[in-house]
Every structure is written in C-alpha cells, then in structure tokens.
Write a structure and sequence with these properties.
The protein has 304 residues and is of the alpha+beta class. The chain is built from 7 helices and 10 strands.
Length: 304
C-alpha cells in the first residue's frame, strides 16, 4: 500500500490489482452489519412467526444457532466483499471523480455518492422484494453509510486495509454479540406474535392469494375457487365449488379462523383457515406439510 493524493488530500493508494484497497475495511464493516441484522432477524423470528411454525422445536433452534456461529459468518463475509465491490468501491470512485472536478474535497462527496448509488440500486431491489421505492432507497443508503465512512477515514489517514480490518473486527463482533443477546432474550421472555381478533362480520368479503379465491357472505354462504388439496406433504390438486362457512373461535390448541364446508371438495382439501396478519390487514392461512417448517398458503382480504 503506497500513498497519493485524493483531491489534494493525502490518502492511501492500492497497489497493482488490489481493488479492495480503494475502500479499505469496507467489506468487514458491511459483513458485520449483515451478520448483526441476520442474527437479530433469525432469533426474533422464532417468536414472531405469524403462521405458528415451530422451527423444529428445541432441536431446530439448536441447529439454527449452530449455523449462526459457523457457516453464516463465512457467508456474510462473502456478502461483505460483494457489497464492497458493487457499492462502496463505486461510491469512493464517484466521490473522487467529483472532488477532482470541483473545489469541494473528495471526502465531502462520499455521502452524496452513497445516496446517489442507493437511488440506482433501490429500483431493482424494490421490484425484487415488492417493497416501496422510497423505503428501499432509504435502507440501501443507510446500509452504505458506515462502510463508506470507514473507507473514507482509512484513506485520508493512510491506513492499510489489514489494520483497518483488525480495528473494525472488535466493534463488529460486539454489535453481533449485542444482537445475539438481545434476540435470545426476546426468544426466552418475549411475548411472541399475537394474531388479531376479528368479529364474524370482519370475515365477510373476498379473500385471495396463492391462486385461491374465497368469497364469504354475511348469510354463511361461501364460494371457493382452487382450494389446495394436499397429501399431507404437498399440494396435489385443486378444487372449487359453492358451500358454507362459519367462524371458529380460538381455544388452547387452535387459532381463530373460518371452517368451510364445500361438497365438491373431498378429503384432503384445505377447509380450515386460521387467522394471521394484523387487525388492519388480516390474513387467512393454511400450513401444509411439516408443522415446524411447512408450506404456508396465505389469503388476504381485498379492500371493498
């Protein structure tokens, strides 16, 4: 690693093909962010799954924890390298280019470069995950601030990538540990997911999703289209027809939901749909296959 100038500021310069020196330490910072978010999401999902899957009980949780501390860090480190190559390095190059062409030093262009690149990357991500563009843009930009900030400081102070990685390892590890402890604490003592409470009239309307259409009227009549028929493991057929429905209250073993009676649908049809979602956006679902990690089919009520 040599030195040079970055828009008049002395900075570290990568040698040869060492592209990672352009954004020293960014890949480890990004990997730490990804690992922290993954640990928190995985542990909180054990108690917050809206469809009641148990993840294999205690054995499933143990396997999940083993994966978190063995293979997952390696995968997150690879993701950090990819992120640095596709996002942080272009942001550093763009800020340098703007610094050369203006009187504003390159480091001051780093944050605008992050925001601009986030706007570009947010478009395909919003389409891929079916999420609002503005929110996706915000999260993408927020994720780039810390890796780019570390890279800017490292280059301004002529820090080589090796020391930067070592110095960022401790705070990254601490963040992961905090997420693990907080998530595990929520797993042990958190309230978990609570389904909404609906009255009979709230079920009346059209419910659609996963190719299924269910029309429930106020007199107890139902029209079902393409209800899944399973063999205990997977969907093997579909059935449709008129019928009736009634609401089922929650008890110690089952959630609240609706029970269908459709004469044209024989044994194996999904005639019991349980409640999930929220009061504002309720859902009806069936869990097909393994109760701990099966295939969930979800219906959402269409707005009138």
């Amino acid at each position: 690693m040599g030195t040079g100038t970055w828009n008049g500021v002395v900075v570290a310069q990568p040698k040869g093909r060492d592209w990672s020196g352009i954004a020293p330490g960014a890949e480890l910072v990004a990997a730490g962010q990804f690992q922290t978010a993954a640990v928190w999401w995985q542990l909180s999902s054990f108690t917050q799954d809206p469809y009641g899957r148990g993840y294999g009980g205690g054995i499933g949780i143990l396997f999940g924890l083993a994966f978190m501390v063995t293979l997952q860090p390696l995968l997150m480190y690879g993701a950090g390298w990819l992120y640095s190559a596709l996002f942080t390095t272009p942001a550093m190059g763009l800020s340098n280019a703007m610094g050369v062409r203006t009187r504003i030093p390159a480091p001051w262009w780093a944050l605008p470069a992050v925001v601009l690149l986030a706007a570009v990357y947010a478009a395909p991500l919003a389409l891929l995950f079916d999420s609002p563009y503005a929110a996706t843009w915000g999260w993408t930009a927020a994720a780039g601030v810390l890796p780019t900030g570390v890279a800017v400081i490292a280059r301004m102070r002529c820090w080589a990538k090796g020391p930067v990685r070592r110095w960022t390892l401790a705070p990254a590890g601490l963040a992961i540990l905090v997420a693990f402890v907080a998530g595990f604490g929520g797993l042990a003592s958190g309230p978990g997911y609570t389904p909404p409470v609906l009255g009979r009239a709230d079920y009346v309307g059209e419910w659609t999703g996963d190719g299924v259409r269910l029309e429930l009227d106020g007199q107890g009549g139902a029209m079902a289209e393409k209800l899944p028929v399973d063999d205990g493991f997977d969907v093997v057929d579909r059935c449709s027809g008129p019928g009736t429905w009634k609401d089922r209250p929650a008890d110690d073993s089952y959630r609240a939901g609706v029970v269908l009676a459709v004469p044209e649908c024989g044994r194996g049809a999904s005639l019991v749909w349980e409640l999930a979602g929220t009061t504002a956006e309720p859902e009806l679902f069936v869990l097909i296959g393994d109760p701990d990690d099966g295939d969930v089919r979800v219906l959402r009520k269409r707005a009138r």
